[in-house]
Amino acid sequence: MISRKTITLALLLTFCFQIALAQELPRSSQSALDWLKKMADAPRQHNYSGTFIYYADGHMETSRIFHKTDQSGEHEKIEVLDGISRIVFRNNDELKCYLPDSKKIYTEKRWFRKFFPDLLSQPFDGIDDNYFVKETKRERVSGHECQVLSLIPRDTLRYAHQFWIDIETGLLLKVAVMDGDEIIEQFAFAQLEIDGEIHSDLLKPDQSVITKEWKITDLVTSILEEGELKWQVKNLPYGFKKLIEMKRNLTDKSILVDHIALSDGLATVSIFIEPIIKDMPTPVPGFFTSRGAINIYVRTLGDNKITTVGEVPLETIKLIGDSVSKQD
Amino acid sequence: MKSKISALMDSELDEHEVSNIIEALGKNDDLREEWKTYHLIGDTLRRSSRLSMNMSSSVNQKLKIEPTILSPNPPNIAKKLKRKIFAFSMAASVVAMVSSWLIMHNNTYELQQTLVATKHPNRDNHLTVTPMMVSSPASVRNYPHPPVEINNYLFVHREFSPGITMRGQITNVHDVSEYHERYGR
After folding, report:
1. What pLDDT score does A20 carry?
2. Pairing mode, strands B114-116 and B68-70
């Protein structure tokens, strides 16, 4: 029968091969990483306005964006032009989401979320560890000459990305998320003006439309220190780190939900933990997918439901969801 | 016996020997350990990046979440099948071996239920394919809609992505059986 020594040896060999595998893709070149830095900085240095298209699973949606940056920071309006009307106004980290059809307004703080084309607002130290960033070619997007960057994952825990970065300003004009050779979602500007004047009226909601009937809901978040939550995430898949831990409400009436956000430098994953309420429908453990790159994993732990959501493959979502346990 | 396991993995055994060795695997923990070790080494040599994952549990999980669906093939499936036929034959032999092992050794494993697609999915909930979800632990439930709160989670996770539905809508979330249909995996 196989001895423990043999198994240990096999495992050691495995690690060696893993290291060899990890080194198979070279380190990203400094010039490729410089493009990422330029791209991350661009939204805080340039005004832009235009129309972008989101495409995934045969579904296409058009949105209009106005983005202004000045001494007081970033101000933005994004309006979805197709389907149900949705308008988001952002003043730095303050968000207001208007749903004119249902006459609702949600206000909250933005902590880590990403808005096309501002996809790298967080520090991106981990990117080179998890992705091989490579300059591939130059292409025109929406009339602008772009440098194309490929971000090839160093393992199967994450999706590949392609970025089209405006050579002059560094703005991200197009992004494709890929699973192997298949594009699973894409954002691209169809029309864009960079560094034009943006009147501040464009960045404010039309007050004449908003009446007393509109219902405003403030979504509360409170940031917690490490260890304050009664949950811990252990043995996370390689490259994923905790960004933030918080308590928040999801609707005006709901109780506070524990929320842990993680990232590998590019992809973000959220873990939501809430108690299972008596007399409410029992949560159904399993996997769900949303449109594009988003996957969802629901499990229960004691009397709690753990929902993990993120733009990573199903296997990674499961590993992250399963990494949650109660504090020792 | 060790060499037989290696031969089994290389598909070098005849039918009789295969059933003998699978039976032995079922009874003997050490042999199963060896089976896993050989796979680990195989994975390493093939440079698979999923070395650290427990293969039996992940395969078990996949089997549980993949209901067998009998429905008329849409025309484009024939093309895909043509392209993937080689991959399927390889995968089928591996899956057949692993599943037979799982069936024998995992008491919690339940045979998948066969679902029948109907042209009128709303007529009878018990025969509906789309809202069907096979959850873990293995049990099949009728599941008319994904939980509403998932949309709240999506809203919070990714505030503004046009691909994400906004609060109150429950149109974009699919259960995994549909996911497998869409992506064929």
Report:
1. 52
2. parallel
Split chain A (328 residues) into runs of 10 and give each run's mean pLDDT: 64 57 78 94 94 87 93 92 87 88 84 75 77 96 95 95 96 94 92 94 84 84 84 92 87 80 90 85 76 85 91 92 90
**CB-based contact A61 B37, cutoff 8 Å:** no
For residue range B15-59, list pLDDT tens digits in order: 888 888 888 888 888 888 888 777 777 766 665 545 544 556 556
Residues A37 and A142 in one domain: yes
Tokens of A270: 């959220």
**Candidates B44, B156, B176; nearest CB to A248:** B156
Looking at residue A253, its pLDDT comes to 64
Which CATH number is A40's domain given?
2.50.20.10
B103-137: pLDDT as tens digits? 444 443 333 333 333 333 333 333 322 323 333 32
ipTM exceeding 0.90, yes/no: no
A233: domain CATH number is 3.30.200.100
Interface residue B54 vs chain A (CB under 8 A): no
Tell me: do A47 and A146 sit in the same domain.
yes
pTM: 0.65
Contacts of residues A197-203 at CB distance under 8 Å and 24 or more positions apart, as own/partner, are: A197/A47, A198/A47, A198/A49, A198/A66, A198/A67, A198/A68, A200/A68, A200/A75, A202/A49, A202/A66, A202/A77, A203/A66, A203/A68, A203/A75, A203/A76, A203/A77, A203/A89
Three-state DSSP state, A253:
coil
- A102 contacts in B (CB within 8 Å)? 168
**Hey, which residues 22-41 in chain B have their CB within 8 Å of chain A?**
30-31, 33-34, 37, 40-41
> Is the previous residue joined to A117 through a cis bond, with omega within 30 degrees of 0?
yes
- Could you tell me if B46 and B62 lie in one domain? no
DSSP tag of A115: B
User: Would you state the pLDDT for residue A224?
Assistant: 86
Contact assessment for residue A308 and residue A271, using Cβ atoms and an 8 Å cutoff: yes
3-state secondary structure chain B: CHHHHHHHHCCCCCHHHHHHHHHHHHHCHHHHHHHHHHHHHHHHHCCCCCCCCCHHHHHHHHHHHCCEEECCCCHHHHHHHHHHHHHHHHHHHHHHHHHHHHHHHCCCCCCCCEEECCCCCCCCHHHCCCCEEEECCCEEEECCCCCHHHHHHHHHHCCCCCCCCCCCCCCCCEEHHHHHHHHCC
Task: Mutate one of A288, A307, A318 to test the B interface: name it (highest B CB count within 10 A).
Answer: A288
